[in-house]
Structures are given as C-alpha cells and as structure tokens.
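Notebook, p. 212. Picked up where the previous page left off. The plan for this session was modest: take the two constructs that came back from the sequencing core last week, fold each one, and keep the raw output in the notebook itself so nobody has to go hunting through shared drives later. Recording the first one now, exactly as returned: residue sequence, then the structure token string.
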Amino acid sequence: MFKRLRALMVFLVVLLGGIAVVNWWLPSLLKGPKVTRLPPGVKPPTTPGLEEALPVSVRTFKATQIEFTDLLPTLGTVRGQYEVELKFETNGIVKALEFREGDLVKQGQVLANLDDREGRLRLQYAQSKLETAKAQLKLAQKRLEVNERLYRLGVIILPKLEEAQIEAEQAQSQMETAEREVDLAGNELEKTVLRSPIDGVIGTREAEIGEYVATPQSVIGTVMDVTSIYVEMGIIERDIERIRLGQRVKIMVDSLPNASFEGRVDNLAPVIEGKS
C-alpha cells in the first residue's frame, strides 16, 4: 500500500513538472525567433545551425504621389509650312542663277533665267507682223473712206463699196491676230524668267548654269515658308495607340542643343507606310 502511494506521488510530481515545462516553452515556440534590428553596415553574428533565425536587412521607401510623364522619343524631319518646287514653265538652258541655299527671298523676286535668244527673236518677229498688220489696216481704212465718198457721189456701185468694207474688216482681224501673237511671244519670253512664288527661304539648289532643263521633270530648287513649321515623324506600329491629336510635343534640333520648342500633334496620317 505504501509503495502504491509513493508511485502515485512520483507520477503527480512528474506530471506537474511536464506541465510547467510546456507552459514555459510553448509561447516561445508560437512567437517564433526574435528579430533584432541592426545598424546599417553591421553584419549579423553567425551561429552554426541558426542561419534561419538571423535578421534580414531590407530597404524601404515612402510612397508619394507625383506627376508622371510618358515619354516617346522619336526622330523627325523639320519642314516649312509650305514647300514649293521651283520649275521653269518652258525648256531651255540655264543662263543665270540668282540664289543660294539659305537665301531669304521675296515673292516675285527673280531667281533664275534661261537662254532667251530664241524667245526674243519670236517676239521681234511677232512685233514686225503687228506693224505690218497695222499698216495694212490703215491702207484698207483709207481705201474704204475713198470708196464711201465715191459711192455718195454715184461714181461707184454698192458692191465696190462692200468690197472695200470687207478688206477693212479683214485688215482689222489680221491686226488683232498679230497683237495676240505678240502677247503670246511675250508670255513665252517671260517663261524664261523664274520668280519666287512666295516669301520664304531657299532650301535646296538642284541645277547649275549651262544645264538643260525640261518641264515638268527638272526642279531648280525649293523655297519654303518658315513663318510656321511642322515636324514630320514616323511612329512604329506598337506605339500607335499612344498618339492622340492635340498631344504636347517637345522638339529639339541638333543646331540648337540648348533650346527646345513646344508643339502639338496636328495631324495623323490615315495610311500606314508599308516600307517602314
């Protein structure tokens, strides 16, 4: 009986000791390893077998609201608002070029001349024909006046007077035709002079003195109106959805590295270029 009582007491002591050990160890197991904050640059101590319990150094940032700009850099070509190709209206040999690339020109300013010897000969020939037609008209009118007096006096018959009237009308028609030929020759001669169609800046010069030019293929040069300019840019397919009319555009050119110009998207080409 005494042995059973002793065994029971030992069992109770062991049970109470086990409960105490569990109450002390279980909270620390649930909480996990304790993390210690280390100063920047200090390495944690190494203990064999305890690598999982070492603290990890992290970097944090404070989130704030800022204005975000989505940039899409691309290359383009600066052009004048208007670009006009300079061409002669007639064929010939270039006799003079009165401009250089980059020159400022005014509307109507003479830029180039063709050899006009043939044109001047045509004009002189037409003018001589006009003088002859005027003389013929005066002679026909004088003859008509004489026949009218003779007809009133009864010296000639009516058909003779009508014949003089027809001759005067023919002379008048011939003189008017000669005048048109003079105007035509003068217009052809004027075509040998190339004038600037607008105020602007000369772009490229594509001809030289002595060169034969033929219309409409031959281009002498270009003149550009630079009072307002535009930039032509190409956009690849994947960036099409990022472009909208009215978007702001910042433009920079190599000749002015420290300056930038602001513009807006004014036009989107409706057709995709297959080559690019």
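Okay, moving on. Second construct, recorded in the same format:
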Amino acid sequence: RSGVTLARKGVYELVVCGTPGGVLAAAMLVPQRGEATLIPTDKTRVRAVVGLNGGTSVSVNDDDTALIQAASIPVLGDYQLVGAGTSAVSLAVDGTDIPMSNVQLAAGSDYSLVYTGTGAAVTQSVVADVNRLPASGTFKIRLVNAMSALDEPLSMSVDFVPVLDAVGLGSAALSD
C-alpha cells in the first residue's frame, strides 16, 4: 500500500487484523522497538439485491462499478470491491434511470443494497452484512427480504426448526 515507508535494514512485524465485514483486512506495522502504525483498508464490498414488483430488467452501479447489468428481476448480485465513503448509486429499470440517494459505505465493511417496491416507487435499503465464519456450528444463514410483491415479513426454518422470524421488507437477518 502506498504511504508506508520501511527503514533500510529494519525489522518489522506485520499484524493482519479483521474488519467489520469479515472478509477484507487491515494491518498494523510494528517496527522493532518502535510504535505501531495502523494500515487501514480504504475499500468496502457491496452487492445489489433487486426484488421489484414490476419491470423485467435492472442495472445497478456504484459510482463507476457495475453491480448488476441488464439482469432479470429478481436478482442477487455478487460482491464487488469499491472505494469506501460516499457512493453515488444509479439504478435503471427497463432502461429508465431512477434517482437514488447516495450511500455511505464504511471501510472494511460488506453491504447489500436492497431495492424493493415497484419501478415507479423504488425503496433503497442499505444492509450491513457480516460474513465472518460462525463461532460455533458449521454454517450461518442470512435471509434478505426483497419480496416486494408479498410486502410481508418473512420467516425461515431449517429442517423444520425456526431460525429466523419476521424479517421485514428491505431488511436482512443472520442466524446464529
């Protein structure tokens, strides 16, 4: 990373640190007999989830990064690496641009931008995702409710055992 200067013939320890999203990393550079320097990430990961009631095709961009391009609705995009900070998000449904609010994305975090409603009245929700491995057990399950046509909270069971309950439209929940 630029901005880090190493002394010639120096001895350093590099400590890799986790970030809020659970996938990206930050670091600390510790010179022998010296003071630690934090080397934060300036990136975040973001994806789009579109469950609009109406429309057939959608495109979503975060500044200059394509999150979804001309995909059929409903669609769950893959995470893309983007710069942290204020992001200008653009949405187009069936080729018609729909104004969206800018979103604030914290460095080291993962987000789902969830779009619900109709092509004429789109709601944008920013959901912080945590993609760390489970502390116990073998898996976690995330339920993202983008079922605009249903417009009801969703619940989920695994092997007939309830794991998530009453997840509202445009929001998400993570099992333990």
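Notes on construct two before I forget. The two ends are 35 Å apart (CA to CA).
Flagging for discussion at group meeting.
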